[in-house]
Amino acid sequence: MVDPGQLIVRSLGESRIPSPLGSLLTRRGTTEHYVDEADRVLLDDTVAMLAARGDELPSFEPGGPRRRIYFDPSKIRAGIVTCGGLCPGLNDVIRGLVLTLNNQYGVSRILGFRNGYQGLTPGAGHSVVELTPAGVEYINEHGGTILGTSRGNQDPEEIVDCLEQLGVNLLFVVGGDGSMRGARLISETIAARDRRIAVVGVPKTIDNDIPYIGQSFGFQTAYAKAAESIRAAHVEAAAQPSGVGLVQLMGRHSGFIASYAALANNDADYVLIPEVPFSLDGFLPALRRRVADRGHALVVVAEGAGQEHLRDAPLRLDASGNRKLGDFGLHLRDRILDDFAAAAREVNLKYIDPSYAIRSVPANPYDSVYCLRLAQAAVHAAMAGRTELVVGMWRGRFVHVPIPLAVSGRNQVDPDGDLWLSVLEATGQPPDFTA
Ligand SMILES: Nc1ncnc2c1ncn2[C@@H]1O[C@H](COP(=O)(O)OP(=O)(O)O)[C@@H](O)[C@H]1O
Ligand SMILES: O=P(O)(O)OC[C@H]1O[C@](O)(COP(=O)(O)O)[C@@H](O)[C@@H]1O
Ligand SMILES: [Mg+2]
C-alpha cells in the first residue's frame, strides 16, 4: 500500500523566475481537462478505494509547465542519455526534449551522451554530441536511438564528476527500471555533494513493467508489431491440417505485450505469461483437444513464461544484472511436438519469435504523440527544479512519480485484474491448467 510520503517529489529549491510559458497559463485552472500546478492527482479512483483511505488521500504532483521556474534558462546546460534495451520512440523523446528546451525555454546548450551511462563515464571513451533542433530533425522517423544505448553498471561518482565538469544542470535519463535505479544513485550522489543538478527520467520499456506510470511509451507500437506475427502464425496454422501457431514475444517478467498483442487479433486460443504459472501436463492435452475440435490452434507465449519448466537452466545475468532467460518458446515447441507424437496425432507447428523486430521500429503516431508530451512534461519538471522523478501518465493525467517509488516494484499483469480477465474471455482458456 502506497504511503502519501512516497509520493512527495524532491525539489532543488523555490521557483522564483517567471516562466517563459507563463502567458499560456494565466487563464488556466483545474478543469476535467487540466490540472493546475497547485492541485494534485489522486492515486485511487474508485469510491471503495477512497473510502478505505480515510482522511489522507495519496496523490501525485501533476506534470506540466509552472508559472515560475527554478533555473535561469540563459545559464542552463542540459544533458540527455538513453539506456537499456531499445524501445520505439526513443528518438521522438530525444527530439521532444531538444525542441522543448530550445523553443519553449531558450535553452540552446544541450549535450547528448553516447551509449547510455557509458557516455557519462569519460574512461569509456565516448565523445559527447551537441544536440540542436536542426540536428534532431527527422530522427523521429527512425527506430533505435541516435545516441546509442548500453547495459552494464557505471560508478555514480564518476558520472556526477562528468556532469560537474561539463556544467550540466539538467540530466534527462530515458530508460527502464535499471536506468531509473542508476538515476536514483546519480541524484543521491548529487544531493550528497549539495549540487543543484536536476535528474528527470522518461520511462522507457517495451515490457511496460515500470509501476505508477500508466503505460510506457513505445509499448503500443511494440504490441502492434507483435500482433503482425500473431496474425501470420494464425494464417499458417489455419491453412494446415492440425495446424498449431506458436508465437513467443518479449516480456521478461511482465506479460503485457503477449496479452495486448493477443487481444489485438482476438484469435489466440492460449496466452501464457510469467504472472500466471501453468502445468504443462494440463496445457498439452488441452491444446491437443483444441486442435482435434477446431482443426488448429494459436498459442502466444511471453518469453518470461514457463521458466520454472526449464530445469537445470544455469542462472545467467546480463551486464546490468538482469537475469538472462532460458528459451521457453523453443522448449514449448519441442514439448508440443513430442506430445502430439506420443499421442500418434498429426501436427503442423509453425513457430515465430519476432524478438528484436518489435522494438527496433519507429514509433506509431499514438506513441509519437505520447513521447512528445512526456518529453514536454520532463522539461517542465526539470526547469521547475524537480529532481529524482520520472514523468508518467496516471489515469489520463501527466504526473511526477518519485524515482524511489517507480523502482519500488514491478508493473505486472494482475491475474485478478481486468486485463487478464479480458484475455481469459477472449481465448476461452481456463484460469489455470490442471493435469
Ligand atoms: N540496480 C542498478 N543500480 C544502478 N544502476 C543500474 C542498476 N541496474 C541498471 N543500472 C544502470 O542502468 C542502465 C540500464 O539498465 P538495464 O537494466 O540494462 O535497462 P533498463 O533501464 O531498460 O531496465 C545500465 O547500463 C546501468 O548503468
Ligand atoms: O537487449 P537484450 O539485452 O537482448 O535484452 C532483451 C530484453 O530487453 C527487453 O526488450 C526490454 O528490457 P529493458 O526495458 O529492461 O531494457 C526485454 O523485453 C527483453 O527480455
Ligand atoms: Mg529493465
Automatic annotation (TrEMBL):
Keywords: ATP-binding, Cytoplasm, Glycolysis, Kinase, Magnesium, Metal-binding, Nucleotide-binding, Transferase. InterPro entries: ATP_PFK (IPR022953), PFKA (IPR050929), Phosphofructokinase_dom (IPR000023), PKF_sf (IPR035966), PyroP-dep_PFK_TP0108 (IPR012004). GO terms for cellular component: cytoplasm. One of its GO terms (biological process) is fructose 6-phosphate metabolic process. It catalyses: beta-D-fructose 6-phosphate + ATP = beta-D-fructose 1,6-bisphosphate + ADP + H(+). It comes from the Bacteria. Pathway: Carbohydrate degradation; glycolysis; D-glyceraldehyde 3-phosphate and glycerone phosphate from D-glucose: step 3/4. SUPFAM superfamilies: Phosphofructokinase. The record marks 178 as: Important for substrate specificity. ATP binds at residues 85, 151-152, 176-179. Its cofactor is Mg(2+). Substrate binds at residues 205-207, 250-252, 303, 356-359. Belongs to the phosphofructokinase type A (PFKA) family. PPi-dependent PFK group II subfamily. Atypical ATP-dependent clade 'X' sub-subfamily. Homodimer. This is ATP-dependent 6-phosphofructokinase. It comes from Actinoplanes friuliensis DSM 7358. The lineage of its organism: Bacteria, Bacillati, Actinomycetota, Actinomycetes, Micromonosporales.
